[in-house]
Write a structure and sequence with these properties.
By secondary structure, the chain is of the alpha+beta class. Helices cover 22% and strands 26% of the residues. Helix 1 links the parallel strand 1 and strand 2. Helix 1 packs antiparallel against helix 2.
Length: 129
Amino acid sequence: MDHTEIQFGHLPVVPGDEHQFAQVFQNLVGNAIKYRKPDQAPVIHISAEADQVAWIITVCDNGIGFAPEYSERMFGLFKRLHTTEYPGTGLGLAICRRLLQRVGGDIHAESSGEGQGSRFYIRLPACPA
């Protein structure tokens, strides 16, 4: 298997605990590597843009994706989409959501379908000026 490629642009300064943010990004990047297509090296792109009151950080991958109707289910405790093909507890994304909600943020996911990669959108309040 080839190496994993992680691309990123300018990322914002946001309020919160750096260790908890590290846990969120470790989970998202780890999932992108874990749920990769068997015949492709993982490519992960992290970007950010601001709206009037928040930052939207996007983590996109070229992995196996998921059916759109499961975009909320995967954030539930012990709710795994791929129960036999991949190891895990089903806690990672639920923990991410709870950590982000503690700082007034949230996370949601999108995919165009199986085999189409995944996009995770993290919404975080902007630092006060």
